[in-house]
Amino acid sequence: MKVTLATYGGQAAVADPRLPPRELDSDALPGNAAAELSRLVAQAVAAPQEGGGGRAADAMSYTITVEDGARSTVLTQSDAAMSLAFAALLTWLEKYFAKR
Amino acid sequence: MSRTRHVNCVIPPYILEKLLESDDRQVRQAALDTLLTTARLRGERAVRASFAAAASANGRRTVFDCEQGRFLQLAVLARSEDGPPATDEAANRAFDALGLTRDFYQEVFQRNSIDDRGMRLDGYVHFAVKFNNAFWDGREMVFGDGDGVKFGDLTRSLDVIAHELTHGVTDFTAGFEYHNQSGALNESISDVFGTLVKQWSLKQSVEEADWLIGTEVWTPGIDADALRSMKAPGTAFDNAQFGRDPQPDRMSRFVHMPDTEEGDHGAVHYNSGIPNKAFYLTAKRIGGFAWEAAGLIWYESLKVSQADFQFQDFADTTYRKAGELFGAGSTEQSAVLAAWREVEVPISGIPTGVARARSLAVDGSDGAGREDGVAALGRQLSALSTRVAELADDVAALKRAR
Questions:
Q1: Bigger pLDDT: B293 vs B351
Q2: Nearest to B42 by CA among B21, B61, B20, B64
Q3: Active site residues of B
Q4: Tell me, what's the pLDDT at A20?
Q5: pLDDT above 60 for B368
Q6: Do B242 and A18 touch (CB under 8 A)?
Q7: Which DSSP letter does residue A27 get?
Q8: Residue of B386, A61, B63, A88 whose CA lies nearest to B378
Q9: How confident is the model at residue B36, as a pLDDT?
C-alpha cells in the first residue's frame, strides 16, 4: 500500500507548492507500524468527510492518496473541518515524515 | 452487551487521540465516544458563553491551549481577560497581540472588535504538531508552533496575529469571497491592517516601517526576510529551498492559478501583492503615519465594498473614499490615483494624461507652473467623477427603496 500526503494553502502557500508530496510504502514499514497505518487508513476512509471549512482564510488543506493494488482512494480535508479519523491518520503521517 | 462509560474532561485529549489508535476496538470506541461527548459539551459551553457575552463583551480575550491537538473543542483554557498571565509564553504573546489589535481598531477607527459589536476574541495556540501555519476559521484565530526547521512559533509575529484577526473584520464588512481577485483583496486587507497594527504599536512612520509581513516566522536557518513584502512584493525571500518569492507587484505580472485548494483558491496569497503595493505607494506618497490617512481610506473603503469586488472595484472605491474624506483633488486622493496607476489598475473614468500629471504632482517631481493648470483640470475632473459616483449611489439606493 502506497500512501501520499500533499499539503496546500496557508500562510506558506507561496513557498510550499515547490515541495513535492510526501509518500511512503507500507511494505517498507515494520510489521506493527504497517498494521497501525492500515487501521488508520481504514478508519479515515470509513469516516464521513467533514465539510464547510474549505474556504476558511489561511487554512491548510490536505490530500491523502491511498493506492492499494489497483484501488486508489483520495481523501481531502481542511484544518477548519476535519474528521477525527482523518486527523489521526494525518498526525501519524506527519510524525512519520518528520522522523524520516 | 458492552456499555461504554464516559470520563469527560479528565483524560487529556492527546491520550484520548492515542487511544483512538488502540488495537482494541472497544477501547477505540470508548475514546471516540469520550472525545465526541467532550467536544459537544465544550461546544455547548462555548456557545452559551458567546450568547451571554456577545452584546457587551467589548472584545474580551480568551486564549486556549490545543496541547498539540487538532480539535478546538478539546483545547483547555490558558488565559482569560480577568485571569493572571499564563505560564506559557505563546499564550501570553497571543493574548497581548490580540489586545493590541483590538485597541488599534478601537482607537484608530472606533471599531468595537471584529464585528463592531464587541465580539469575543478567542485565540488557540499550540495547534497540531509542528504546525507551520496560522488561520482564521470563521470565528476563531488559530496558531501553530512551527516545525522549528522552516517556521518558528507563529505567535511571535504581531502582524500575523493582526492579519488573522483582520480576516474576521473583513468577514463582518465587505465579506470578500475567498477566491480569485476578491480573495486576493481579502488577503491584502489582512496584510494592510496587520502591518498597520505593528506600525501603530511601534509608532513608526511610513519611512521607518519595514513593510514586511511575518519577519519572525522563518527560522534563522532559512535565508528569508519575511513571508511577504508590501513595499516590494516578490522580494521577501529568495533561497535554494523555497525559490524566489512569487508575489506580483503589478497587473501585468498577475498570477493565474485554478480556483481550487491546490491552486490557492486562485492564487489569493500571490496576487495580494498587487493591492498590497498599491497601499504602500499610497501611504508613501501621503507620508507620516500610514494608519492616519491611507489606513482610514482603506478602512472606509472596506466597509462599503462588496463580496465579489475585483481589484478595479476596490481601487475605484478607495479613490472615491479619498475624495469624500480629504476632498476632491486632495493630496491624499492624488496619492491613491497614482498608486493604483503604478500597479496597473488605473482608476475608472480618469484620463491617462490627467492621472499621470496628478501622479507627478503628488510625487513632487513636476514643475510648479505646469502643475497649476493640469492639477486644476484634474481637480475639476475628480470632483465631477466623485459627484457622478455619488449620484450613482443615490440612484441605486432609490432603486433598492422601491
A1: B293
A2: B64
A3: 164, 269
A4: 82
A5: no
A6: yes
A7: G
A8: B386
A9: 52
Task: Tell me how many domains chain A contains.
Answer: 1
Alpha-carbon distance B389 to B400, whole Å? Answer: 17
**Rounded distance, CA B337 to CA B316, Å?**
9
8 Å CB contact of A11 and B227: yes
Lowest-pLDDT range, B71-85, B192-206, B326-340, B365-379? B365-379
CB contact under 8 A, B167 and A92: no
Residue with cell 490557492: B264
CA distance A91 to chain B (A): 7
Say which range, A20-29, B50-59, B337-346, B364-373, has the weakest mean pLDDT.
B364-373
| Structural domain that includes position A36 | 2-99
Give the distance from residue B175's alpha carbon to the nearest chain A alpha carbon, in angstroms: 11
Integer Cα distance of B248 and B77 in angstroms: 41
ipTM (interface pTM): 0.88
Give φ, ψ of B23 to 5 degrees: -70, -25
C-beta of residue A7 within 8 angstroms of C-beta of residue A60:
yes
Is 60 exceeded by the pLDDT of residue B271?
yes
pLDDT at B367 over 90: no
Cα gap B223→B237, rounded to integer Å: 7
In single-letter form, the type of residue at position B338 comes to A
Q: How far is CA B179 from CA A44, A61, B39, B165, B182, in A?
A: 28, 15, 31, 19, 6
Amino acid identity, residue B306? Q
Task: Give dist(CA A80, CA A60) in Å, integer.
Answer: 8
| Residues facing residue A61 across a β-bridge | A8, A78
> To the nearest whole percent, how much of chain A has pLDDT over 70?
91
Chain B residue numbers with beta carbons less than 8 Å from the beta carbon of A95 are 129
**Closest chain A residue by Cα to residue B139:** A56
What is the crossing angle of helices B89-109 and B158-172, to 10°? 50
